[in-house]
TrEMBL record, chain A:
Taxonomic lineage from the root: Eukaryota, Viridiplantae, Streptophyta, Embryophyta, Tracheophyta
Segment forming the signal sequence: none
Protein name: HemK methyltransferase family member 1
Source organism (scientific name): Populus euphratica
Gene Ontology biological process terms in this record: methylation
SUPFAM superfamilies: S-adenosyl-L-methionine-dependent methyltransferases (SSF53335)
Any GO MF annotation of the entry: nucleic acid binding
Keyword Transmembrane on entry: no
Tagged with keyword Transferase: yes
Superkingdom per UniProt: Eukaryota
Keywords: Methyltransferase, S-adenosyl-L-methionine, Transferase
Pfam families linked: PrmA
From TrEMBL, chain B:
Protein name (Swiss-Prot/TrEMBL): Uncharacterized protein LOC105107329 isoform X1
Domain Prokaryotic-type class I peptide chain release factors: 101-159
Signal peptide: 1-23
GO cellular component annotations of the record: chloroplast
Family (UniProt): Belongs to the prokaryotic/mitochondrial release factor family.
Presence of keyword Glycosyltransferase: no
Ribosomal protein found in the keyword field: no
InterPro entries on file: Pep_chain_release_fac_I (IPR000352), Pep_chain_release_fac_I_sf (IPR045853), Prokaryotic/Mito_RF (IPR050057)
Length: 360, 262
C-alpha cells in the first residue's frame, strides 16, 4: 500500500500538470482514424494486391510456431487469419466473402488487369505487415481497431487493446441491471476506461435512463474513448473525464449506482516476460499494477465504498484467483461492513477473473 | 435477456417429453475442406472423446443461473432430461434458451490470460450438453461474435445429427419442409409462400425434416421425392443446393451402399 500511495502522488502531480508543455494537452491529441473508416482512395491493380498477399502470407507462414515458443505469441495460423482481417479492412467492399474469395488463392478467377479500391496504399500495406511480423506490432494497432462484443472500437498506440475476457463485465452489469431496475436508471462509472470499451458496452444496455462517466489518466485514452463514444452516438449518456481514478468524480461522490473497472493488475516483475505484442507495444500505464499487481484494485475498493450509493453494484477485473481471493478477504475484513454479496466470477477459460458485489 | 413466460414454459414442456424415438447420427470422420462446416468439430460424450474435450467449470452466466429462479428451472429440467429431447425442439429454442443448454469455453487456458495476452481467447467452443454436440468458431474478430457463429453452427449440426423417426405410412410433410421445396412440388400448396433457400435461417428446420424423411426411406431419393411431390431430379437438385445437406445425405447413402449424389 505504501507503494500505491507514492504512485498515487506521482500520478496526481502528473494529472495536475497535464496541460503543461511536457504532456500533450487533450486538444493536441487527435485520435487516429481506423483503417476501415478511411476513404477508399487508392486504386491498385489486383495483380499487385495479389502479389502483396502472397508475400504477406509466406512471411506469416515463415513464423511457424517460433513466437509461440519464445513468448507464447501468435502462430502462423492466427497471423494468416489476421492477414484476412487486414484485407477485409483495407478493401473498399469489406464484405468478408469478397475477401475470402480473394484470399482463397483463387487468383485465376480474378482478372489480373482489374483494379481494386483500397483504403491504404500498397506501400503502406507492405510496411504494416512487416511491422506486424518483424516488430510484433499488435494487429489491432495496425488496423486501428478491435472488434469487441458487437462493437468495433478504435484503438491506437497509447491505449490498451480491450481483451475478450473483459467482454463479460458487460454481461455481469446486464445481469445486475435486469434484476434491479434502479441500477439501470442511475449513474455509472468506468474508471480507467482505456478505449471506452466497458463504458460504451454498458451505456448501450442501460439505454433507458442511465448515464455513464468514463475516466482515465492517459490523455490518449481519453481522446480515443471520446472518439469511440461519439462514433456510437452516445455523447448524451456517456461522458469522458480525465484524471486519477475517482478524482474527476468528486462531484458525484456517494451518488453512483455502479462502478466497473479493469485497472492495471499485472505485477511489475511480470511485465518484462509478457508476449512482445503486449510488453513492447501496449502502454505500461495500462498494465503495471505495482509489485503484487493489486495496488490499484485495493485503491478502487476503498474508493468504491465512498463513491457508491447504498445498494450500488461493482465489478472489477483481476489477474486471477489469487487477486480475487485477496480482494474478497480485504473487503470482508479490512473494510468490513462496506460491501455485501461478494462474488468471484470466472472467465470463459475457467480462470477466476472478476469480483462483484454491492455497497451495503 | 427477458424470456417470455410463454416461451419458457414451452421449452420446459418440450424438454420434459419422454421421447425415445430420436437417434444421433455418428459424425463423419473427415470432411472435405470445401465444406462450409469444416471449422466444426463434433464428437460425442463417450469415454474416448471425453478426454479430448476439455472440461471446464461452465463459468459465469451459465453456471450462475441458480441465482435467478427462471433460469434455474430450465437447468433443472434439462438436467433431468439430459440426453433425451427431440431434435426439432432444440431448433425451436431461442438463442438464449439453447445457450443455456450449452457449456461454453474458450480455447487457450494456458497462462494467466486477461491483460497478459493479445488475442486468441476470442475463439469459442460450445458444447450442447443434452446431445454432446460441439460447435466452435474461431474466425470472427470478437468473442461475442464467435459465440453467435458457434451457436449458428450448433443449430446446423443439431439439424444434421439429431434424427427423429417418423411413420412413413401416414407421412405428411410438416410446413417447414414444404417451405423449402421448389414451387413445382405437387403437394406444396400456394399458402406455403415463396421457397425458402439455404441462406435463410429457417432453412435449417426444413432441412432437418427432409433428413428425417430421407433417413426413414433409407436414403432413396425417388421414394422421398414421391412423398414430396417431386421428381428424383428435382429433389436431388434441392439436396445439392446446400453443402451440409448434401453431405449428410451422401453419408447416409454411403452407409447403405448407394451411390452419392453429385
Ligand atoms: C488495463 S487498462 C483497461 C482499459 C479498458 N478499461 C479496457 O478494459 O480495455 C487500465 C486503464 O487504466 C488507466 N489508468 C492507469 N492508471 C490510472 C489512474 N491512476 N487513474 C485513472 N486511470 C488510470 C490506463 O490508462 C488504462 O487505460
Amino acid at each position: 500500500m505504501k507503494l500505491g500511495l507514492s504512485r498515487a502522488c506521482f500520478y496526481s502531480s502528473c494529472s495536475a500538470s497535464i496541460f503543461s508543455s511536457s504532456i500533450p494537452s487533450l486538444t493536441t491529441i487527435k485520435p487516429k482514424i481506423p483503417l476501415f473508416l478511411r476513404p477508399p482512395t487508392y486504386s491498385v491493380a489486383s495483380s499487385d494486391l495479389q502479389k502483396w498477399h502472397g508475400w504477406a502470407k509466406s512471411l506469416a507462414s515463415s513464423v511457424g510456431s517460433s513466437f509461440v515458443e519464445s513468448d507464447d505469441g501468435p502462430d502462423s495460423t492466427l497471423l494468416c487469419r489476421e492477414l484476412n482481417w487486414l484485407l477485409e479492412d483495407s478493401l473498399e467492399n469489406r464484405s468478408s466473402s469478397s475477401c475470402f474469395s480473394f484470399a482463397a488463392c483463387n487468383y485465376d478467377s480474378l482478372d489480373g488487369i482489374e483494379n481494386v479500391m483500397l483504403r491504404i496504399s500498397l506501400d503502406d500495406l507492405y510496411q504494416l505487415w512487416k511491422q506486424r511480423i518483424e516488430e510484433r506490432r499488435p494487429f489491432q494497432y495496425i488496423v486501428g481497431c478491435e472488434h469487441w462484443r458487437d462493437l468495433v472500437l478504435s484503438v491506437q498506440e497509447g491505449v490498451l487493446i480491450p481483451r475478450p475476457e473483459t467482454e463479460l463485465i458487460v454481461d455481469l452489469v446486464s445481469d445486475a441491471v435486469s434484476n434491479n431496475e434502479e441500477l439501470g436508471q442511475g449513474l455509472w462509472a468506468d474508471v480507467g476506461t482505456g478505449s471506452g470499451a466497458i463504458a460504451i458496452g454498458i451505456s448501450k444496455i442501460s439505454r433507458s435512463y442511465g448515464r455513464v462517466i468514463a475516466t482515465d489518466l492517459s490523455p490518449v485514452a481519453v481522446s480515443v474513448a471520446m472518439f469511440n463514444v461519439q462514433r456510437y452516438g452516445l455523447q448524451h449518456v456517456t461522458e469522458v473525464r480525465q484524471g486519477y481514478w475517482f478524482e474527476p468524480l468528486k462531484d458525484v461522490e456517494g451518488q453512483l449506482v455502479g462502478i466497473v473497472s479493469n485497472p492495471p493488475y499485472i505485477p511489475s516483475d511480470n511485465i518484462s516476460g509478457l508476449q512482445a505484442e503486449v510488453g513492447r507495444h501496449e502502454p505500461r500505464l495500462a498494465l503495471d499494477g505495482g509489485a503484487s499487481g493489486i495496488d490499484y484494485l485495493l485503491h478502487l475498493c476503498s474508493g468504491a465504498a465512498a463513491m457508491l450509493k447504498p445498494g450500488g453494484f461493482f465489478a472489477f477485473e483481476t489477474n486471477g484467483e489469487k487477486q480475487c481471493k485477496f480482494l474478497v478477504d480485504y473487503m470482508q475484513n479490512d473494510i468490513a461492513g462496506s460491501f455485501c454479496n461478494l462474488n468471484i466470477v470466472s472467465d470463459f477459460a475457467g480462470i477466476q477473473r472478476f469480483v462483484t458485489g454491492f455497497r451495503q | 435477456m427477458a424470456v417470455s413466460a410463454h416461451s419458457l414454459l414451452k421449452s420446459m414442456l418440450l424438454l420434459r417429453l419422454p421421447i425415445t424415438t430420436n437417434t444421433i447420427v455418428p459424425p463423419r470422420v473427415s470432411r472435405p475442406s470445401s465444406s462450409p462446416l469444416n471449422l466444426i468439430s463434433c464428437h460425442y460424450l463417450n469415454a474416448s472423446n471425453r478426454t479430448k474435450s476439455r472440461h471446464f467449470h461452465s463459468p459465469t452466466l451459465y453456471t450462475r443461473t441458480a441465482e435467478t429462479p427462471k433460469k434455474h428451472l430450465i437447468c433443472f429440467n434439462y438436467n433431468t432430461s439430459a440426453s433425451h429431447g427431440k431434435g426439432t425442439n432444440y431448433l425451436e429454442l431461442t438463442d438464449d434458451e439453447l445457450m443455456r443448454q450449452c457449456e461454453m469455453d474458450t480455447f487457450k487456458a494456458s497462462g494467466p490470460g486477461g491483460q497478459h495476452r493479445n488475442k486468441r481467447e476470442s475463439a469459442v467452443r460450445l458444447k450442447h450438453l443434452p446431445t454432446g454436440i460441439i460447435a466452435q468458431a474461431v474466425e470472427d474478430r470478437s468473442q461475442h461474435m464467435n459465440r453467435a457463429s458457434a451457436l449458428k453452427r450448433l443449430r446446423a449440426l443439431l439439424a444434421i445429427r439429431v434424427r427423429n423417426s417418423l411413420d412413413i405410412d401416414s407421412y405428411s410433410p410438416p410446413l417447414e419442409l414444404l417451405q423449402i421445396l421448389p414451387l413445382k412440388s405437387t403437394i406444396r400448396g400456394s399458402d406455403c409462400g415463396p421457397q425458402i433457400g439455404p441462406k435463410n435461417p429457417k432453412f435449417i428446420l426444413g432441412m432437418q425434416a427432409l433428413l428425417d424423411l430421407i433417413f426413414a426411406v433409407d436414403g432413396s431419393i425417388s421414394e422421398a421425392g414421391k412423398l414430396l411431390g417431386l421428381s428424383t431430379g428435382a429433389l436431388s437438385r434441392l439436396i445439392l443446393s446446400d453443402d451440409s445437406l448434401r453431405m449428410a445425405v451422401n453419408d447416409l447413402r454411403n452407409s447403405k451402399g448407394l451411390k452419392p449424389l453429385r
